[in-house]
Automatic annotation (TrEMBL):
Biased segments, Basic and acidic residues type: 93-109
Keyword list, A-Z: Kinase, Serine/threonine-protein kinase, Transferase
Domain Histidine kinase/HSP90-like ATPase intervals: 35-142
Lineage top rank: taxon: Bacteria
Organism: Streptomyces coacervatus
Name this protein carries in UniProt: ATPase
Span list, region Disordered: 1-28, 93-112
Length: 147
């Protein structure tokens, strides 16, 4: 589950080999982990939470986990870290394929379902990195800046 945050992995070390079935991480669980991490940071530092950045981080976590499930063979690792400058969300999956922006079938973008997740992540995050994992698969890390 996506319950832990900060620098601890929810599902184990990225790229680590597993015995038995991998644990799942659904988008709703990822959102709850991001909310908890940001709320804990705000309580610990006695600061007002940036609700706009939190909303963006929630959407980024949703899109990354959804894409890992739909296109990457499932989530193999999920991490969320609250930095002084923003929220870092990292999602690993089994696929070596890098994300792509799908071109709409209709030039007016009518009737198309899906294909919006990666552009949303790239637009909302200040920094997005895709890294190959030693044991196969990839890790996508996106940082959503506080305002």
């Amino acid at each position: 589950m996506c319950e832990e945050h900060r620098t601890e992995s929810v599902l184990g070390r990225p790229g680590a080999q597993r015995t038995g079935p991998p644990r799942s991480c659904r988008p709703a669980e990822a959102r709850r982990a991001v909310e908890r991490a940001v709320a804990e940071r705000c309580r610990a530092t006695h600061t007002q939470c940036d609700t706009e950045a939190l909303g963006d981080a929630l959407l980024v976590a949703t899109e990354l986990t959804t894409n890992a499930i739909l296109h990457g063979g499932g989530v193999t690792d999920f991490r969320v870290d609250v930095l002084a400058t923003g929220v870092r969300v990292s999602v690993s999956d089994r696929s070596d394929r890098r994300p792509v922006t799908r071109q709409p079938a209709d030039p007016r973008r009518r009737g198309g379902v899906g294909g919006h997740g990666w552009p949303i992540v790239c637009r909302l995050a200040r920094d997005v990195r895709v890294s190959a994992l030693p044991a196969g698969g990839k890790c996508i890390t996106a940082v959503v800046a506080f305002r």
